[in-house]
Amino acid sequence: MSTLKDAMRRLGENARAASRILAGAGTAQKNAALDAIACALAREKNAVLAANEKDMECARAAGLEPALLDRLLLSEKGVENMAEGVAQIAALADPVGEMTDIRRRPSGIEVGRMRVPLGVIGIIYEARPNVTADAAALCLKSGNSAILRGGSEAIRSNQTIAALIRAGLEAAKLPPDATQLVQTTDRAAVGELIVMCEYIDVIVPRGGKGLIARLLAESRVPMIQHLDGNCHVYIERFADPDKALAIVENAKTQRYGTCNTAESLLIDQAVASELLPRIGKMLREKGVEIRGCAKTRALLPGALEATEEDYAREYLAPVISVKVVADIDEAIAHINHYSSRHTDAIVTEHHSHAMRFLREVDSSSVMVNASTRFADGFEYGLGAEIGISTDKIHARGPVGLEGLTCQKWVVFGHGETRR
Amino acid sequence: MSTLKDAMRRLGENARAASRILAGAGTAQKNAALDAIACALAREKNAVLAANEKDMECARAAGLEPALLDRLLLSEKGVENMAEGVAQIAALADPVGEMTDIRRRPSGIEVGRMRVPLGVIGIIYEARPNVTADAAALCLKSGNSAILRGGSEAIRSNQTIAALIRAGLEAAKLPPDATQLVQTTDRAAVGELIVMCEYIDVIVPRGGKGLIARLLAESRVPMIQHLDGNCHVYIERFADPDKALAIVENAKTQRYGTCNTAESLLIDQAVASELLPRIGKMLREKGVEIRGCAKTRALLPGALEATEEDYAREYLAPVISVKVVADIDEAIAHINHYSSRHTDAIVTEHHSHAMRFLREVDSSSVMVNASTRFADGFEYGLGAEIGISTDKIHARGPVGLEGLTCQKWVVFGHGETRR
Asked: Which candidate in A374, A385, A394 is best for mutational testing of the B interface (most B CBs within 10 A)?
């Protein structure tokens, strides 16, 4: 145990030392490393696929579930996409060094802020080996060291990818310890990572709700957390019916397994009898099960009864909870009670109601007349995304390069002293 | 124990409910409450002083240390300053509702950010009763509910002040539960507060390092933490000697007990023999004890030997550690190793060295040719300050109204669905 602790602390020390160099590295040098990594991934595609095939063999032998095997498997196209993803991150603007709001103060000093890397990011993720390249590249571009802890079933794939990343860093004369993979598959390593406050500035977990809830309960290091996505669409009484139908269809049925999929529909009682039958028909044609309140069931015979838990659930499946509400007050109160603070949308043509919804719904993304499926780093123009935060501290919603940085204060003086 | 837990959770529920109303309250209404509170504090000055006198009697009877008694005592002027502080917060710009960076995306949606309150802020503080008014006013202006937990020795003062605040909220037709004081002096209440993640969004501790370290070890709620202030002044080889002398004098000797006071002086070996004797003379005339490295002691006979711990210490006293360094590389490495990431300054006329120092020193405030004493919310133009964060997540350095808010994403659509 103490050997593991020592080994983890050594990773931490190496990461911290590398982060100092990375923080001072120029954009061109970081991009050279990213380009070298992208080339290496493309060039060594067969080595990555061979390592992944070994992981798959062991996983099959260990009797892993098909869904996990699916996430573990890398195709030739998958490795190419990984390389391309790294190259795309090289093309993004460097957030580091930006100075803003420099203002002259009555004392004579000029004060403002400078955007700098956080330092060391710990990434804890499950099966998908492409996270190794993706997360390492985002950390590198934002000037942070990364300590990567992938799933044990992907260890060979991850080791191969990490070795290529480290070679790319060296080729660009950056410290290879800017990207370190935890080599042991011992689960106790995770327990060490999440308490190494002196070496790790933030933990980004990428995985299921179970993983994140467990990490949250034990972590001493701040975490960019993403729990569930119980997203709502509220059709207000002044909604355009066609927009309402299109948005519900897209938000619920475009993909069932994503966190920005709508899981709950609220509809104003003034338009429920006119609109709900049309929406119910559409949902049924798509094979979506409806669980509703008494008023919903009166309008949609055959709909199941929604329980308290239904309103709080992220189904990640073709199921939706439906509630007829009296007005926008009830809708906002319901959402603020049941929502997971991920993404909630109103459909309305009423300006003041739209603006009230935007102001009062306490979620990381609030939308008017748009599908919740837009809550995504690429759709928002961040260029890439390391995760979606459902927390309020530091970063809310899709987290891109900027979320991996912070702002320090800079003071330009001319010999001023304080009176 | 379960009764205490229930009572604390009830505070949390009330605070959350009030925060929803506060988040939607307009600036004029919040300012009306602040003005009513300021007037009430001025009008009921004698009631506050009487409560404080009872606290003082009990504290004296309990044999509290003179330093604690000093912090507990409210003078007539003190209560007037408290009222004036609240009125000044009313005059600050409201950070809530600001929308920024709204951009049109290729999909047709317009995406940007809206600044909103965090929700519920827990403030845990020690003796000073003025924090009750100060923290409540900052939370109110930024649209947050506050749960205040003051020191048990100040309970009567705090109760009187909190009652005036609640009356002011009611006068402005805002929910009085926007400001709640923990009424019990049971220390277990603090233990409950710092784990009520569903009701409290952030904890702001205001007190000594001991309090904060203890809270940090146990808190499950994110914290705007401020540990120690081990601030450095580095006199680089291209420093202007007069600026160097003035800045060291001000940074070290203007006040000894503040967190932005310099505790350590680094000086380039190229100018040490010329400058250090002048600085040593000034420090000695001010009665500051010098603890230095071997080279320092050679130049300043009579200086004590600095140990490893000296370089890491926040003295809060007329003592300074001094080290002669080879160059800017050694200075930056020393600071990044020993500094508490609060505030560090370089004195130099060399542009590139100045900019390197600003970029590479990993502290919440980095300064060129200015006294570390400027690291302060008022000096930076924040108008007020709830604390200084030595953390990197969410807010760094002086935290004003903006640090009590976060930014959510807002999407303006026109019926768009995702492809």
From this structure: A374
Least confident of A29-38, B22-31, B250-259, B379-388: B379-388
Helix (H, G, I), strand (E, B) or coil at A97: coil
**A393, B201: Cβ pair inside 8 Å?**
yes
Q: Is the Cβ pair A406, B417 closer than 8 Å?
A: no
- Mean pLDDT computed over every residue of chain A: 95
Could you report the predicted ipTM of this complex, rounded to two decimals?
0.93
| A contacts of B105 (beta carbons < 8 Å) | 379-381
Block residue for tokens 């795309």: A88
Give, as one character, the DSSP assignment of residue B404.
Answer: G
**B138 vs B46, B74, B85, B120, B230, CA distance in Å?**
24, 20, 10, 12, 27
Residues of chain B contacting residue A233, judged by C-beta atoms under 8 Å apart: none
CA angle, B312 as apex, B308 and B313 as ends, to 5°? Answer: 110
Res A215: pLDDT? 87
Residue among B147, B150, B146 nearest B130 (CA):
B150
**pLDDT tens for residues A142-160?**
999 999 999 999 999 999 9
Of B23, B362, B413, the CB nearest to A370: B413
CA distance B34 to B25: 13
The pLDDT assigned to A1 comes to 52
> Each residue of A396-412: pLDDT tens digit?
999 999 999 999 999 99
Q: Is the dihedral of CA B274, B277, B281, B283 positive or negative?
A: positive
Beta-carbon separation of B406 and A397 below 8 A:
no
